[in-house]
Amino acid sequence: MRPKTARCPGAEERLRATVATHWPVLQELGLAEGASLDNLLFVATAEEAVQNADFVQENGPEREDFKKELFAELDAAARPDVVLATSSSGLPVTNIQAGLKHPERVLVGHPFNPPHLIPLVEVVAGDQTGEKAVLDAINFYTAIGKKPLQVKQERLGFIANRLQAALWREAFALLAQGSATVEDIDLAISQGPGLRWALTGPFLNMHLSGGAGGIAHVLKHLGPPMEVWWDDLGHVPLSEELNARIIQGVEDEKAGRSDEDITRKRDKALLELLKLKNSLPEI
Predict the structure, then answer these.
(1) Directed axis angle between helix 240-254 and helix 182-190, to 10°?
(2) Which end of the chain is more exposed for a tag (fewer CB within 10 A), N or C?
(3) pLDDT in tens, 236-255
(4) Which domains does the chain have, with CATH numbers?
(5) What number is the average pLDDT over the span 273-282?
(6) Nearest to 55 by CA among 172, 133, 147, 3
(7) Average of per-residue pLDDT across 118-140
């Protein structure tokens, strides 16, 4: 959706093409009875989109000015009891809800790409968000098969993106310093800790690596070396030269493969991983 003054040309065609592309994976994942591409409704204005909605998920550009304008329209058009969730990747929802008539129903509902497969949704309240809206959002995401996580503090980037940013910062630094190539870094994660992180998070992984002594043993014996590593972690500003190296490195890693082919194979593997995780007791 775009504010009424700036409708995006070709939006409906792109939407329908995107949903159709992902439909086979969604069918394999499992759809509700009666689900059909024919049920997809496109409307031209925000008012039309939300006037009969029971929950609103906004997925506009990551710009605070845009979201504030759009949420003013949504707030005026939707029923007062309907949650208005923004998919912002890190913007403070407190700023977005400021000045609205019903700020208590505005919050962050941040999914992760590809959102039709990745379960996590971060739920973040702003200064004026009510407890009922948070509970309603968590219940809604849970009902559609997601794994909602309520973020305890409103911080830039929330939780998952801050963790990703920490990894990206060191990845960029290693590349800039000449310690590794783009492909080396991707391999180090995808064939190393990334496999474990798909099953357990960083703290439980650390605990399991400590043997009989668990995380207490790791903290005692590897804590001091880790502090040395932390002090040695790099930080480099993005530059045209570094950006060019990253872009070229990704092209080299792709080795002529199309983004569509990589995405298709990734989604297929993700689907199989999700099926496996869902078939096993939670770790």
Answers:
(1) 60
(2) C
(3) 999 999 999 999 999 999 99
(4) 11-150 (3.40.50.720), 160-279 (1.10.1040.10)
(5) 89
(6) 133
(7) 98
